[in-house]
Structure formats: structure tokens, C-alpha cells
Amino acid sequence: MAKKFVSTITSQTENFAQWYTDVCIKAELMSYSDVKGFIIYRPYGYAIWENIQQYLNTQFKQTGHDNVYLPLLIPESLFQKEKDHVEGFAPETAMVTTTGKEDLNERLIIRPTSEVLFCTHFKSVVQSHRDLPKKYNQWCSVVRWEKTTRPFLRGKEFLWQEGHTIHASEQEAKEETMNMLSIYETLGKDMLAIPFITGQKTEKEKFAGAEATYSIEALMPDGQALQSGTTHYFGQGFAKAFDISYRDQDNQEQFVYQTSWGVSTRLLGAIIMVHGDDDGLVMPPYVAPTQIVIVPISSDDDVMKEATTIFESLKDHYRVMMDTSDKSPGWKFSEYEMKGVPVRIEIGRRDLEHKQVTLATRYNRQKQQVPLSEVIGIMPELLSTIHQKMYEKAQTYVESHTFHVNDYELFKEKIALGGYVSMSVHEDAEAIIKADTQATARVIPFDQSKLENTCPVTGKKASQIILFARAY
Amino acid sequence: MAKKFVSTITSQTENFAQWYTDVCIKAELMSYSDVKGFIIYRPYGYAIWENIQQYLNTQFKQTGHDNVYLPLLIPESLFQKEKDHVEGFAPETAMVTTTGKEDLNERLIIRPTSEVLFCTHFKSVVQSHRDLPKKYNQWCSVVRWEKTTRPFLRGKEFLWQEGHTIHASEQEAKEETMNMLSIYETLGKDMLAIPFITGQKTEKEKFAGAEATYSIEALMPDGQALQSGTTHYFGQGFAKAFDISYRDQDNQEQFVYQTSWGVSTRLLGAIIMVHGDDDGLVMPPYVAPTQIVIVPISSDDDVMKEATTIFESLKDHYRVMMDTSDKSPGWKFSEYEMKGVPVRIEIGRRDLEHKQVTLATRYNRQKQQVPLSEVIGIMPELLSTIHQKMYEKAQTYVESHTFHVNDYELFKEKIALGGYVSMSVHEDAEAIIKADTQATARVIPFDQSKLENTCPVTGKKASQIILFARAY
User: Fold this and answer.
1) Does residue B340 carry a pLDDT above 90?
2) A409: domain range?
3) Same domain as A238, residue A115
4) Alpha-carbon gap, residue B313 to B308, rounded angstroms
5) Is residue A270 domain-shared with residue A307, that is, in the same domain?
């Protein structure tokens, strides 16, 4: 029975894309709805998102941000006020044109992102330098009519947070852009056990309407990069289009400087791929919906009593569950392995005789016997170790799949193998590389110390090092 | 300056509806967007909703519910599967018909409520009695194309939670319906300081598709009732329309029994009206975004130092802020009165000399001197007393505006004065009463012990006591 449960998953090597979809469904993270590209976030999947929300809300509030909620619908005319922005998003918009009773006078766009709504609101609430900065964040869903969709990675609807801030000075706005990038990077390191590569996006890849876009990029086991979050510095572009100005201390009218930034449920896709294996999901402990599962191997009174005692000792400190259902232990083991629960505590009659439990850790599939007297006490360090080892494994993968080259043939060879490849290039090289290899510019790394003189692709003067990869 | 700030609010007696709108705007709870009926939840307003969310999430999880997220859009054909339901909601639906690129094959409805989506999902995840119950909750926004809109009370878009559960037995589903009603009633009593009247809705007033609807009703100071939350028992109606069945322990196919229940940001409207006065909002302490504000009356070093010490001692236990801006103390007092902050701590040079602070409580506009050594220690009891007094005041208002009559002329007299009036009636009376008095059936009270034989409206046999009121 346990075998059958597991055998329904495609192996990663056989078909990585199918493995991914299998895990999404079998680990009960999501299911499909009747509208293509719109998914149902099931309890186990949504709980991961709630843990990310809780972590980020704490970070956002500590850094002086307030949560707000702005409307779902945007009048088409308002959307068209900032030229670059509308060009970037217009093809993907879903529009409300009618109600049960009558057609609307103006088409209303379901927000694909809320810049224009925040701009209109900022204009109405800011008069003086005393009103600045405004640092807002919104948790919501957005709709973008994407053609090709995959659970969590690309959907017609997805959940995200979008931060929107306005500032009196350019420097403060630029600092905000970098600070939020740093919070996202730390989210990866401390919660998701994912080493993000950070850097600036190229002109071609930046956000529609931004002066500069920064990104966190994760590397998937198939060698493809996944853009996992972005922060944008807008300068005064939106402020001028939407007339967001304030009176400064010298009573002069000034435009504000603006930022926005966001991460989405795409992070769930990153967690699934970076850590998962052929038995299913492997959850990093600090973001795991269930950190510890207790499986009594017998329904004997004294086994159940001891299992309950352990459960009661753990439940105020960890997300722990005990499975006393009538499924077989083997079935349960497979099920929690599929769901990637970091720690499983098994307790049977034999364990009880030896005053111990059997403790199985998901990430390395190891079992060990632990004295009953120690099982509570070892948990903090055990979870910390699991997190650290998972992070290190992911980090090792990134390092062994990152190359810096100064030769275009070598570049193509490395890109074909999967992973990140950086090279000093002229700006014309980006399009050529994409056409030749399907690799796109992921980021311009902050460290540009190895910049060479000549671009191997164009023969022109190299202007910057760019990190390339094929990407989702 | 302080005077000017306050004088911009209409008084309740002059124009209650205008007073309400003024408070919504001036207390910075919301502002209007460019689309009529869609509002912006500003930080101070959204924080109230977040506190309600946190309270309810704890209650929901303690009673075994899981959060999920289902799609924003519903295919029109799916929506039409349950006859009563579609008739109730169809006129109010907003429909997506086109994207930036092409028209859709089928119109998609923005969810006005998610019963049909949950039904489809339940059908796909439930096979056996082991899969039951499923107890889900969703936090989201919904869209209903209402004609007349008012901030928080009735909007084209509003925020809410919608619980959806399925059960193997009728009894369990009925218990769920009543348990959730009880959680809502307790939310009123423990968080919002609002005494809700509970009971069952009449056939005419029940939810489209429900077998029975229960409601929490609050009484506003203008004598009108506000339906503030509902729970629905669906029986097997949706289950049969959507074929949600499971195999029971005897391997027989059975339909599930179903419930749904929700409260919305309408609760903010209830808080504003039940507690507010001519100086603005009066926030009940346990749901208040800011529970305590500290206003140093002087910028002297020792005053600031003492104020900071008090702030530091309070900040880990309460939602507290200190206002050190360069606005005048009088301006600040008005501002925090407008925002209804329950407790204000003033500290000036004179206070410091007497080793005391001045403590102002918003709900009764009283000031008292409190020794510095006691100001931290008294807080738990102070907040509890404020909450209790606010609840009692609201309760007294309800009691003094609730009448039980057995005479239709007396009924009309009492209804004209505002408040609840209950009477033993035949089912035909409801429509007559509405036509005569604009009063609607709020609930059928659980206590029917005073049921009379004859309905004074129709002269027919009275079947039940109904509580009537004019309502929002």
C-alpha cells in the first residue's frame, strides 16, 4: 500500500516537469480549478504561504511599513497614465465590461499590480514633507492573462505582497529598494533554506515603468533560474505622471521618489524544486506547515499514552501533529515523506521497552534511536541542523553550477549544461545570447571587479558583467 | 488649531449619516477610489480588520478549520448549477468578458461568494467517510454590484472571511452552523464590545440556497439594525446539485451535509456607529490599532526621557505609540480623540514634578492623575474596565430600545421610534409590516416562550415570534 502511494510520482530524472506537477498534486499543495491557470491553494499549500506572510509581516512592520488594501479593479483610463507601465501590462489584463444588470461605461481592469492605484492614493494623502515617507504594503491576489501556466510558477491569478513607498529624497528611496531586497534575501536564507543570487536587472529585463529593478534569483535542479522576487526604484517617473508632489521645508513643491517590491506564491515553486526529491516534498523546517509528525506504531495503551505525552510537550513550541488514524504505519510514513515533514517520531512497543523513540529526518532519510528523556530537548538544535544542511546542500549546488567565462564558445557549452554563467559583455550581446542559447540576463551582479575590456560576443567594449541562465 | 480639526465633523444629531462618513474619512479609516463603491482601506482602518482576522483565525484553528484560497473567477455555467443561489446573486455579478488580447469564450464572474467553487473542490477531494469532515475558511475580497454604497456598510467590493464545511451527518453540520454563530457572538462580546442579537432568519430573508440562515444583528444609535454576520445550514441542496458524495462505513454512497458562514469589513461600520461620538471614533481597546498613545507635553529632556521609559515598558505588551512630532499638544489630543485611541498618557513638566502622569480615557472623556510608579501596573485592569463599560453602555442602549408587543398599532409606534420590536406573527405579516413601516424581519429569536395565539397584523394564527427593525 505504501509502495503504491509513492509509485504514483514520476522520478526527477525521468521527467522533471512531470515530477513537479505530481508533487504539487500528491503532496496536496494545490488542485486545479475549472478555469485554466487559476489554482486552488489547499490547506497544506496555503499554510506555507501563511508562514511566509507571518515572517514578512514581522519584517515589514519592524522596518516601519503599514498594511493597506486597495481596490481590485482599475479604470482603464487610469491604467494608461504611465506609458511604459501600460505597454508592459496591457496585453495581459483581464477586463470587467458588464454586470448582471448592465454594461459598464468604462472597462475595469483586474489589478495585475497596483502602482497606478497607489499613485492616485498617494496624491490624495500627501501634501507636506511631514506626510513623508509613506511606506505601505498590500497582501492580495493579482491577475495576469498568461498563456502558459504552471502551478505556483506562472498563473493567471497568483497571491503576493506588493510594497509601495514614497520618499522625499532620492537616497532614501534607493535605500528602501536595497533594504527590501536584503529582507527577501534573508527570507531565503533564514526561512526557505534557499540561497538567492541578487543583483540588478538589465534595461531589457527591468519592470515596466522602473528606473532600476533588482531581483532575487534561485537555481532549480534542472539548471534553470527562477526569478523569485523583485524590488523597483521608480525615481520620479510615476510621481510626474500622477502628479504626486509635496511642499518641502522651504515651501517649494517637489515630486516624491518612489519604490515598489514584491514576492509571490512563486516562492512555493522554488521550495518544491530546490529541496524536493523522488519521494516528494522536502520542507525546510522553519516554513514547514507541520514540523514534526508523531506516528504511534501500535495502538497499545502505553504506546498511545507515551506518544500523547510527547505530543503535549511539543505542541506549544512547534507545529506538530500526531496521526492516530487507522492507516498502516507504512502508508503514513510514505504520506509524510511525500509531504516533506522534516521530522517524524515513530514510537512502538519495542521503542517503549528500550525507553526510546525512532526519529526519522526527511532531508537525509536517516533514522536514529533517541532516548525518551532527550526527544524534547534535542528539537531546537535538530531543526536548526536540518535547516542548515538543507541550505548548504542548495548552496553547494549553486556553486557547482556557477561559472565565470570570457569566451563565447565556453559560455555556450556551460549554458547547455544548465546553471549560471557570467561574462563581461557589451549591451548588444544580451539579445544575441538569447537567440543563440535561450539564456536570459538574470542579474548584473553587484561585484563587477572582474570586468574585462572586450565582449567575446560582439567584439565591442564590454560595459558590465552579466549573469545569464535559462530561466522559468 | 485643535478646534478647527474637530469642527470639520458633523454632529450625530445634526446628520447621523454625514457624521458617519466624516468619521470614516477624518479618522483615516478609508478613502474613496476612482471606482464608485470601491474603497481604500487605509492603515488605521486595515489594522482593525487585521486584529479581527487574528482573533478569528485563532478561534477557527482551535475549532479545527484550515485556511485555503480558491480562485477569484467563476465560470458562468458553474455559477448556474444551484437554482436558488444563482437567482439570488446573478443581478449583482461583475463579469470578465475580455482580456488585453482577446475575448473570452465564456464569461467569468468575479466571486460574490464562493459556494460553487468550494462545492466543485469538495467533490474532487472527498471519496470516503475518512475524508470527512472538511472544515475550510478563506480570507478574501468579494464583488457584488450594489447600487447604493457606503463605506464599510455596503460596497461593490468588500473584505470578508467565508467558512465552508462539509460533514457526514446532518447533526454535525447543524452543530457547526450554531458553533460558528456562537464564535461570532463572542467576537462581539470579547473584542468589539458589541452585544449582538442572534437568531434564525425568516424564509424571506435567508441566504440564496440555504435551508436555514442564522444572523448576528447589532443595533445602531439611529435605531436601525445592522446585519453583521451570518451562518448557513445548507442541508444537502448544494451537495445534490454538485454531486458531492462519499462512501460511508457500510460502503453506501451518501451526500454530504454542508454549511457556510462569514463576517466582513461591515464589522468596522458597526464599531464606528455603536461606539462613536461627536468627537469621532471611540475604539474598544482589544480591537484598537493603537491602544495607548503617549503625548509628551514638553520637549524637555527629562520629560522625553520619562515618556520614553513608559513607552519602552508598555511596548511589548500593548499596541502603543508615542507622538513626538512638532504638532501642538492640543492638536494631538484632538487627533487621537478623533481616532478613538482608548487611553492617552500625557506627561509634562508639572506632572514630572509630582511624579505622575495625566491619563485620559476616550470613552468617558475623563482625566485622572496617576503616580508614575502605577501607570504600567494599572493598564490590564484599565483596558478591561474600558471594554466592559463600553459593552455595558451598548447593551443598555439595546435593552432600552427593544420591545415586545402584541398590538400592531403599538408595534408601528415603537418601530417609528427606532430599535427592535418583537411580536407573535403569522408568516403573511412580514410583507405587510415591511410595506407599512419599512421594518424587516431581523431574526426569529431562539426564545419563543412568549408566543401568542393570534397575529395582530393578519388576525391569523401566529406561528412564531419575529424580531423586527428598520435596517441598513
Assistant:
1) yes
2) 404-469
3) yes
4) 9
5) no
